[in-house]
Amino acid sequence: MRAHRSLRLRTRWVSTALAAAILATGFSTPAFAPVAAAQVVLPSLGDSASEEIPVGYERRIGDRIMRSIWRDPDYLDDPILQDALQGMFHRLVEASRHRGNIPSELDERFAWQVFLVRDRTVNAFALPGGYIGVHLGLIAMTTSPDELASVLAHELSHVTQRHIARSVGASKTSSMIGLATAILGILAASRSPEAANALIAGGQAVSIQGQLNFSRDMEREADRVGFGVLTEAGYAPAGMAAMFEKLAQASRLNDNNSFPYLRTHPLTTERIGEARQRLGPGVAKEPPHPLVYATLQARARVLMDPRVDALRRQQDLGSDRAQTLAVTPLEKLAGAYSSVLASTLLREWARADAVLPMAYAEADGNAQAKREVDLLAAQSYIARGDGARAGALLEPLLASDEGQDSRAVKLMLAQRALVPGPANAAQLKVEADRLQTWVAVHQEDALAWQTLSQLWGRLDQRLRAMRADAESRAAEGDLQGAVDRLRNAQKLARAGNTDFIEASVVEARLRELETQRRRQAEEDRREG
């Protein structure tokens, strides 16, 4: 059984546990509060501390944490949502670079990756080394890309301001393993008050109130820097103020622990007022592509709670009664999309097919919204083994400019080729070559490597399949698993496999990963 089974925060006591445990290990912001990185000119909130936590050391802490998160059942790699989220985050990172917020060392060493957590609560958090997590509940709660982008910009600004390095100065003796383990322990303790209390009891006595005061300074700094990044990236500046006001209203009306973001990012009337003052007259604008965002919201709502009773509720949003009660086209499209996806996950194809035309009708007139419905329909057809209908939708998407860069389209085409049935070697080879080109540029894409391994396996290319499987392990930080698989591939090659080029690649990659594994073990011993 995995030691860290969930990333979820559920109960009110967690905020105190986070503060105390993180302080005990040297962090002065909660684990799910933003942490990490640097700006060219930093306000004087503790600059001397940043020199005590080297950029590479901070990245290694983040990598260690992510190795456990990648194996957590609540970690979610949904290509459709991930494409949208990564595209939004990339725009913000580019804007931050343009504003001079990211010095070259930070740019080169940090991960700059955003990932999804299957959780109904409204939360987002940054980790050391430039990793940012987003709960599906946050996407489901926001009503425009501007609102979601404002949260990402805020988290990114905690990273570029390097708040974690500026907070750890008082804990120079804390080890990398200790810091990483503390955060992971808090993730696990979120399900057990007893575990959280044990973390607190094992730490040093620290003033939580002092930490909170310092955190407010960082929050205001992230607001200010994040607002500039948000507008530089082309999002409506009203998104940040609207998000603050929505969270503030939620905190007044809702006390059911669904908003951990409010506990780790305490709102004040001052912060809300400052966000409004930054707008100036007439700068707010209509969110772009609201129909597209409605489909992303709907997708998040369905995927964040996979229980059958929850899927049934989402499925009912496509009923005639629910569609009649829906007031706006956004609500109608979101309801129909939710219903089709829920029916697909429940494997009730007739229900999915009955509601799919409603989704197309509401998306009519918006090419990007129709594209999202096409992807949904293709997902449903692949799930039921209808590769032909899925291909008829995906091939035109791939031919478009947007489709050429779409990870979701490439992966779904590969999944279409893997649909059980008579093998089409030519189709399998096309998709294998396409994914091989993709992973050559995106070597960290574990899901693409896993899918590529299946494709090569179906083509009876065992050596390539084994290497792709090994690369998927390496992408998730499991260097031992990767080395084991490459050694097996090496044995296969030496037993008479004639693919000499691939055998050479296996040999070289094995040496490289063995070196990385030894270096990692040495760093763990030295810094533990």
Distance, first to last CA: 24 Å
Q: Any idea what the shape is? A: flat
Q: How large, in whole angstroms, is the Cα Rg?
A: 24 Å
**Quaternary arrangement of the chains shown?**
single chain
The residue-averaged pLDDT reads: 80
Structural class of the helix and strand makeup? mainly alpha
Number of strands: 4
Strand order, biggest sheet? 1-2-4-3
Count of discrete structural domains: 3
Described by strand count, sense and barrel closure, the largest sheet is: 4 strands, mixed
Number of helices: 27
Contiguous uncertain segments of 5+ residues: 1-51, 189-193, 199-214, 281-287
- Helix percentage range: 55-70%
What percent strand? under 5%
Brief digest:
The protein has 528 residues and is mainly alpha-helical.
Task: Furnish the topology, listing elements before pairings.
Layout: H1 14-25, H2 47-50, H3 55-69, E1 75-76, H4 79-98, H5 104-109, E2 113-117, E3 124-127, E4 131-135, H6 136-141, H7 145-160, H8 176-189, H9 193-201, H10 208-232, H11 238-253, H12 260-264, H13 269-277, H14 290-303, H15 308-315, H16 320-325, H17 329-345, H18 349-363, H19 367-383, H20 387-399, H21 401-404, H22 407-417, H23 425-441, H24 446-458, H25 462-475, H26 479-494, H27 500-527
Parallel strand pairs: 2-4
Antiparallel strand pairs: 1-2, 3-4
Characterise the protein shown here.
The longest helix is centred in the C-terminal third of the chain and has 28 residues, at 500-527. The protein is 66% helix and 3% strand. A 4-stranded mixed β-sheet has the order 1-2-4-3. The protein is flat. The protein folds into 3 domains: 14-277, no CATH class; 289-385; 441-528. The protein has helices at 14-25, 47-50, 55-69, 79-98, 104-109, 136-141, 145-160, 176-189, 193-201, 208-232, 238-253, 260-264, 269-277, 290-303, 308-315, 320-325, 329-345, 349-363, 367-383, 387-399, 401-404, 407-417, 425-441, 446-458, 462-475, 479-494, 500-527; strands at 75-76, 113-117, 124-127, 131-135. The two termini are 24 Å apart. It is built from 27 helices and 4 strands. The protein has 528 residues and is mainly α.
